[in-house]
Amino acid sequence: MKRKGDCVLLRKNNVKQRLLDGKTVIGSFSKLADPSAIEIMGLAGLDFFVIDNEHVAMNKESITNLVRASDITEIVPIVRVKENNASEILQALDCGALGVHVPNIDTYEEALRAIRSTKYIPQGNRGFALSHRAAGYGFYDKDDYLKRVNQEILTVLHCETLESVDNLDKILDLEDLDVIFIGPMDLSQSMGSDVMGNGTHPNLVELKKKIIQKVIEAGKVVGTVAGNVQEAKELMELGVRYIPISSDQGMIATVSKQIVHECIMD
Fold this sequence. Notes:
Mean pLDDT: 93
Strand order of the largest sheet: 7-6-5-4-3-2-1-8
Number of strands: 8
Distance between the termini: 57 Å
Shape: globular
Number of helices: 12
Structural class: alpha/beta
């Protein structure tokens, strides 16, 4: 039996450490509320998963259960919150997520607010309590918890509008920013109807390369989504090191289409 104060739930964030070591991490998005999907991803060897609480209707209990499922294989749990809101970020981290994706970061001030919401003092102003899951429901030693938690949380800020691109130089000056994540579909929308939804449009492809180069030159990690393994390899060649490939739903859809095409249609 664990003694009072022994840390069980606050795990080492292997994704953050690998990124600090200059390595690449591969994960996927989680859109299903079934914890077995997380167990499968972890058993398969993925580094992380991102619970999509922006585009999918998840409740707090569903998110907590998905995070809890990650403890079995130690795949790193991350939550894409609905918006840059301190309460949304707080609840994602309090349930035990080791990082957050924050969408629609367009200005330096918005980036600073998001980062401060992920950190306790002195780096931020995250709401403090010890009664939540991430702090072992009050069983953890306070000093040990506070010493470790700011180090383990991964802060991923989305660059997905032309305004964000224009302000990127200043945003990249923020010390506790871990990853700039390019949201290609929202970025395409901000470029006009001719580009919207066209992931291979030359203007979008060129802008993504510009963002990637700028982030790398600033000494930060850049991430974006890949639809498949080939796309992921192409992104790695450009220097992208944080890559979620597809999603649990997307993987089911891909294999289902393959089965229909290769078996049933024949």
